[in-house]
Design goal:
Layout: H1 2-46, E1 49-53, E2 56-58, H2 60-83, H3 94-121, E3 125-128, E4 138-146, E5 149-157, E6 162-171, H4 177-180, E7 183-187, E8 192-196, E9 200-201, H5 205-220, E10 233-234, E11 238-240
Helix pairs in contact: 1-2, 1-3, 2-3
Length: about 240
């Protein structure tokens, strides 16, 4: 009888161990995946990507913060399940310490990134412009007033709801042209063309060098003022293309 009881106890422990390990591993894996997704959202924001679900533009800092919170909840569950582990064995050695350090480093990065995204998103209004392209492409704009002027960024959003930056602009005053309706959006066979009244864009270094080479002879001859060389470029008929 004694040997039978020992066999039953041994089988019970083995069963508990088999059930415990996969579940705890999945909880830990889900926690790490949530953190990595949050990190991806932060990186995507600063690289000019946007997410639209239905008629709503998802704010990146809310999404990344939600993933961060979910990861922390899963981490707590992972720890709690470890404390209730049958026949517990210590796993807080070198590997456990490295794992914890890596986790909290990721938490710090995603937390700081979410705070930065929230700062840059503060006071920003989102707009899904009409009309839409017949194939499902949409123009989405983020616009806000800042530092004596306003700025905005247009995104080309495909049918799956993920969009990329199509252009940025600035204005000289607090006038917000998208909010005021001072824009035109026309779809052609290849893409959309967005024109914004009284808006300008800063040229890239390559564009500035090319413009300098083109206009320098006119400046040398006195036909053009040097001030015109550094005038910003109008935001005129910028392409919005999802393809």
């Amino acid at each position: 009888m004694s040997s039978l009881r020992q066999d039953d106890t041994s089988r019970s422990r083995e069963t508990d161990e088999k059930n415990y390990l996969p579940v705890r591993s999945r909880v830990y894996l889900a926690s790490i995946v949530s953190l990595l997704l949050g990190f991806g959202v932060v990186i995507g924001f600063f690289n000019g990507w946007i997410l639209v679900v239905g008629s709503h533009v998802i704010r990146a800092w809310i999404l990344s913060s939600g993933l961060l919170l979910a990861s922390l909840v899963l981490w707590v569950l992972w720890i709690v399940r470890g404390s209730r582990r049958p026949d517990p064995r210590r796993d807080d050695g070198g590997w456990g310490l490295m794992r914890s350090v890596a986790f909290f480093m990721l938490v710090s990065v995603v937390g700081a990134g979410s705070a930065m995204v929230a700062f840059f998103d503060w006071g920003t209004s989102n707009y899904i412009l009409d009309p839409h392209e017949p194939d499902g492409c949409r123009a989405v704009v983020r616009e806000r007033a800042m530092w004596g002027g306003s700025q905005g960024e247009a995104y080309a959003v495909g049918i799956i709801g993920v969009g990329r930056s199509a252009g940025k602009w600035h204005t000289y005053d607090l006038h917000r042209p998208i909010n005021a309706g001072d824009y035109t959006l026309v779809w052609t066979a290849s893409d959309g063309e967005l024109t914004i009244a009284d808006a300008y864009v800063f040229r890239t270094r390559t564009q500035s060098i090319a413009r300098h080479k083109t206009l320098q002879p006119l400046i040398d001859s006195g036909e053009l003022s040097i001030d015109n060389l550094y005038d910003p470029e109008p935001f005129d008929r910028k392409p919005v293309n999802c393809h």
